[in-house]
Write a structure and sequence with these properties.
Layout (H helix, E strand, L loop, with lengths): L9 E3 L17 E2 L5 E2 L4 H7 L11 E5 L2 E5 L9 H6 L6 H18 L3 H13 L10 E3 L2 E6 L8 E6 L12 E5 H4 L7 E7 L5 E7 L6 E7 L5 E15 L5 E7 L5 E8 L6 E5 L6 E6 L5 E7 L4 E7 L8 E2 L9 E5 L3 E6 L8 E6 L9 E4 L6 E7 L3 E8 L2 E8 L5 E4 L7 E5 L8 E8 L2 E9 L5 E6 L11 E9 L5 E9 L10 E4 L17 H5 L3 E5 L9 H5 L7 H16 L8 E6 L1 H12 L4 E7 L5 H5 L7 H8 L6 H10 L12 E7 L8 H13 L6 E6 L12 H16 L3 H13 L1
Parallel strand pairs: 35-36, 35-37, 37-38, 38-39, 39-40
Antiparallel strand pairs: 1-29, 2-3, 4-5, 6-7, 7-8, 8-9, 10-11, 11-12, 12-13, 13-14, 14-15, 15-16, 17-18, 18-19, 19-20, 21-22, 22-23, 23-24, 25-26, 26-27, 27-28, 29-30, 30-31, 31-32, 33-34, 34-36
Helix pairs in contact: 4-14, 8-9
Length: 757
């Protein structure tokens, strides 16, 4: 039972953003000669144009860098004491707070006529979520651990039940370990980090963040009495590991700049924290976990393109960390424990899509690594899970994931097969090591998530849970397509498309196009309920699997980063153009949507092809690229130079970045309607990025389109923390999208007419 999933050894390839269910209706549109759509006039948009927007004061600052000069009129919006603001939001500069308050008041006024529509969308989405849902229990010794929600509850309840030691069947009452709703009662925001019981089952350690700043407090609870016996720190990343004697925890410290830079060892009931490891390179972050057999605490220090691992004996609370292999530029390796050796997933020796190597437990240095599974170009090895007799390998080929099971004794392998054309997978090893069972989840854009227990020896799969959609769902009502969009350089970009069977594919339907395209993150073809309310109203929903992710293997990622970053944006535009040319939508009738680095994607795309889009939603968008990558004090800047480049030292990197940076490339031209969101305590994409971008867009755009900003004054990167509160943010985004494509007016009028009756 964990939030950050160390001990349970969970691999997710699933959890995509595509969802379904609909009773479609199409907007009344007319096609023009150039395959664009003339959307009906929107009374909501016309009304909004008449509302005066805030205009941020310009205080120009000239920035000289590597012989280049740029002017930033809005640099003042970054609070000089931003580190303190992350911990104490109330100290925000008064002028900045006044601007953010004005922006929130403005969007409230603009969106006020859609309040009832937003409520309807919120209720629709909430109605598709089983409110008293529960996870499938995971057995650990004489207990099974699980989490659940109560009806109407916003936060998880973490619980356990005793099980029969022979049959494994539950034979006792639920014991609540943490009541998330009760924990959140005194706070506007609450997020759980790691939640882990001790190996002897007597104690529970858990981490909580109450600001959204991602600084977590680690608490230890005596399960029998319910008392908090110690609070180890309030400066943690939220990650920790128990030693096997249940006496000690290892935890990660987050410094004043938000970086994970130290590992401490501390007795269960407080006492002195002992520094175990400190990372000297600001470009490397630390993570911590347990090896598969739980014999070692694993410290990983990694950047985007290289890492190194240290092991500590989990049975000895005084043991020192032992380095496996020193870091090497552009070499990554990840460790999996087996009974007689370590296995390594690595890109050593030019294995771009990774290979599997092995070494003895007692001598695991790099000089002893030998190939077990050689590199196969185009077959990306995503991860490994180890058991006593088995190894489970996750791979992706041709943009689809797969699960491969290997028996140590014989070396024989088999693959778990699935029937659908596009799908998403996840695997959980659970707590126990000497077992033949793995648990996997399966979903597709038309199939709600199914959770199975799979016997690796007999190949039997047992359905343990199927995601319920309380409002009803029939996969046959929906159509899922995978198209290939030709990129400007000839690459074929996979695009997953979902629409209702009744939606006409003649170019008249509006479409939401989602993308991300950074850090190698691949958006899978999974089932999600949030886009349902768009599909219900006749929109097509599409996900572009663009370069910068790893849908096409690791090279797909390399082809969308650093000097190749422009491919990410041109791929997204190519996806939109292909969808229009094939009749799924038409130019000018697309809403672009992305968050964080996906917000960068959205900002760059509307700078490059503004007339392709009717609207754009950029959630917590990374849009001020050059300024952020030039500020070495920001939490993610040094670690992300390998992803974006270093404009402090490299003139070439500076020129590459400024050529696509959405904030720097805002021009005097017409733009689609834009909605940006942010969080005041967000340490990943700081609040001033979307604020500055919106200010410059509003000042420079030559049309009378909308430029809106919603700043959450009590949350960070993930927005509101409660599961239903976050849906209200989605409902607002969807209402905005419907406004921009002309679908909101009629429904707003209909809702108002019903209210008058």
């Amino acid at each position: 039972m964990t939030s950050h999933t160390t001990s349970q050894r969970v691999i997710r390839i699933g959890a995509g953003l595509v969802a379904l269910l609909a009773a479609a209706c199409s907007p009344e549109t007319t096609m023009t000669a150039d395959n664009t759509t003339a959307t009906p006039s929107s009374a909501l948009i016309d009304r909004a144009r008449g509302i005066e927007a805030p205009m941020a004061e310009q205080r120009p600052v000239e920035i000289e860098q590597l012989g280049f000069t740029r002017i930033d009129e809005y640099q003042w919006i970054k609070d000089e004491n931003w580190q303190q603001v992350m911990r104490e939001p109330e100290v925000l500069d008064a002028d900045i707070r006044a601007l953010l308050d004005a922006e929130n008041a403005y969007i409230d006024t603009v969106m006020e006529p859609t309040a009832a529509l937003q409520e309807q969308i919120f209720q629709e989405i909430r109605g598709r979520i089983k409110e008293d849902d529960s996870s499938v229990p995971e057995r650990d010794g004489n207990y099974e651990y699980f989490s659940r929600y109560r009806e109407g509850g916003q936060y998880p309840i973490y619980s356990r039940r005793p099980v029969d030691p022979v049959t494994g069947e539950a034979n006792g009452d639920e014991e609540i370990l943490i009541d998330g709703d009760a924990e959140a009662a005194d706070f506007d925001y609450l997020d759980f980090g790691e939640v882990e019981h001790s190996p002897d089952h007597r104690y529970l350690a858990y981490a909580v963040d109450i600001r959204g700043s991602e600084y977590y407090e680690v608490r230890i609870k005596d399960i029998a009495t319910g008392a908090i016996i110690s609070t180890l720190t309030d400066e943690s990343t939220g990650d920790f590991v128990w030693t096997n004697d249940s006496e000690t925890l290892y935890w990660i410290w987050r410094d004043d700049n938000g970086r994970s830079s130290r590992v401490y060892r501390q007795p269960r009931e407080g006492g002195v924290s002992e520094l175990v490891y400190e990372e000297p390179d600001a470009g490397f972050f630390i993570s911590i976990g347990l090896s598969d057999g739980e014999n070692y605490v694993v410290i990983n220090a990694g950047g985007h393109t290289s890492n190194e691992i240290r092991l500590i004996d989990a049975n000895d609370s005084s043991a020192e960390p032992v380095l496996i292999a020193p870091r090497e530029t552009n070499v990554e390796y990840y460790l999996t424990e087996a009974p007689d050796r370590f296995y390594f997933r690595t890109n050593l020796d030019g294995a771009v899509d990774f290979k599997i190597m092995a070494a003895p437990l007692d001598n695991p240095g790099r000089e002893n690594w030998v190939d077990v599974i050689e590199h196969r170009p185009g077959v990306l090895v995503l991860d490994l899970i180890g058991f006593q007799d088995w190894q489970v390998r996750m791979e992706r080929e041709n943009a689809l994931p797969r699960i491969v099971v290997r028996e140590y004794a014989t070396g024989a392998e088999h693959q778990i097969d699935f029937a659908e054309e596009a799908y998403s997978l996840g695997v959980s090893a659970g707590y126990e090591y000497a077992v033949d069972l793995i648990r996997f989840s399966y979903e597709s854009p038309s199939t709600p998530e199914e959770t199975y227990d799979y016997n690796m020896r007999t190949h039997e799969r047992v359905l343990r849970k199927r995601q319920e959609v309380p409002s009803g769902h029939d996969p046959a009502d929906y159509v899922v397509r995978r198209i290939m969009a030709p990129a400007s350089d000839g690459a074929q970009i996979p695009v997953t498309v979902l629409y209702h069977a009744d939606t006409p594919i003649d170019g008249s339907a509006p479409l939401m196009l989602y993308g991300y395209g950074s850090y190698g993150i691949t958006i899978p073809s999974g089932f999600r309920v949030t886009p349902l309310s768009l599909v219900d109203r006749g929109m097509v929903y599409a996900v572009a699997h663009i370069r910068g992710g790893m849908a096409g293997g690791y090279q797909w990622y390399l082809d969308g980063k650093l000097e190749n970053k422009e491919n990410t944006f041109s791929d997204f535009i190519a996806a939109g153009e292909a969808l229009a040319s094939q009749g799924y939508t038409s130019r000018g009738n697309i809403v672009a949507y992305g968050g964080s680095a996906g917000g960068l994607l959205v900002g760059a795309a509307i700078n490059l092809q503004p007339d392709l889009f009717a609207g754009a939603i950029a959630a917590v968008p990374f849009v001020d690229v050059v300024n952020t990558m030039s500020d070495a004090e920001l939490p993610l800047t040094p670690p992300e130079w390998p992803e974006w480049g270093n404009p402090i030292e490299s003139a070439e990197d500076y020129q590459t970045m400024i050529a696509y940076s959405p904030y720097d490339q805002v021009r005097e031209m017409a733009y689609p309607h834009v909605l940006a969101t942010g969080g005041l305590t967000d340490p990943r994409v700081t609040y001033w990025e979307p604020t500055k971008w919106v200010a410059r867009l509003r000042d420079r755009r030559t049309d009378d389109g909308l430029t809106l900003l919603r700043m959450n004054m009590g949350a960070g990167h993930g927005g509101a923390s409660g599961r239903f509160d976050s849906l209200r943010e989605t409902a607002m985004n969807w209402a905005f999208a419907l406004m921009t494509v002309g679908l909101a007016d009629g429904e707003v009028e209909e809702i108002a007419a019903e209210a008058r009756q």
